[in-house]
Amino acid sequence: MYYQLQEMLRKLIESGDLKPGDPIPSERELSEQHDISRMTIRQALTNLVNEGLLTRSKGRGTFVAEEKIEQPLMKLTGFSEDMRLRGIEPGSRLIQFDTVKAGDNVAKYLEIDPGTKVYQISRLRLGDGAPMAYETSFLRMDGLLLKETDLQGSLYALIEATLNKKIARARQTIEPSFATEDEAELLTVETGSPVLLLERITRFDDGTVFEYVKSAYRGDRYKFIADMQR
């Protein structure tokens, strides 16, 4: 029974009868409409959520998922640049902005001594006003003077203009995970929803590391693509 309901919803989505952002009736409503148990309903909906066709929003319900944003892995771009390339208006909400002493791990990634002061910036990254990722960056302070008003637009463009240096390359890792309670609240998804965890170490063209960033991207809105040749 769950498979029949699952396929019925899938066809409605694929045909366009259910469009991205449309709400799905509650488990109780679907149970009454189709005379099947709520456990069966829950299994069908969970399978479609796991496939990325549906998404759950904490406190709001289940909706048809928006089309995923494709992020190429062969080019280094900032979040704002990437959104604009796809015709999406970027935005951000500042969660934290501090100068902190680098711990052992951050110091290792930034190639500085532990205890060196660095910028710590946590931002909720938005696309057309919707949460896309929760990002925490650690930046070396060498010659870089930042204030809160600098953090609304593209940080990469600001850094290049301020330091007169070119951002050249990065090493990035990606792994699947599940949203923590804090991440879920910021990203407006349920705790335990799939997220993609990214860690990146970014360098200027002279080889100097300037940034270590870790981000949690919504798994229902993002997919990463790599073109490979043999």
TrEMBL record:
<dbReference type="InterPro" id="IPR011663">
    <property type="entry name" value="UTRA"/>
</dbReference>
<dbReference type="GO" id="GO:0003677">
    <property type="term" value="F:DNA binding"/>
</dbReference>
<dbReference type="InterPro" id="IPR000524">
    <property type="entry name" value="Tscrpt_reg_HTH_GntR"/>
</dbReference>
<dbReference type="GO" id="GO:0003700">
    <property type="term" value="F:DNA-binding transcription factor activity"/>
</dbReference>
<dbReference type="InterPro" id="IPR050679">
    <property type="entry name" value="Bact_HTH_transcr_reg"/>
</dbReference>
<dbReference type="GO" id="GO:0045892">
    <property type="term" value="P:negative regulation of DNA-templated transcription"/>
</dbReference>
<dbReference type="Pfam" id="PF00392">
    <property type="entry name" value="GntR"/>
</dbReference>
<dbReference type="InterPro" id="IPR036388">
    <property type="entry name" value="WH-like_DNA-bd_sf"/>
</dbReference>
<keyword id="KW-0805">Transcription regulation</keyword>
<dbReference type="InterPro" id="IPR036390">
    <property type="entry name" value="WH_DNA-bd_sf"/>
</dbReference>
<dbReference type="Pfam" id="PF07702">
    <property type="entry name" value="UTRA"/>
</dbReference>
<protein>
    <submittedName>
        <fullName>Putative transcriptional regulator of N-Acetylglucosamine utilization, GntR family</fullName>
    </submittedName>
</protein>
<feature type="domain" description="HTH gntR-type">
    <location>
        <begin position="1"/>
        <end position="67"/>
    </location>
</feature>
<keyword id="KW-0804">Transcription</keyword>
<keyword id="KW-0238">DNA-binding</keyword>
<dbReference type="InterPro" id="IPR028978">
    <property type="entry name" value="Chorismate_lyase_/UTRA_dom_sf"/>
</dbReference>
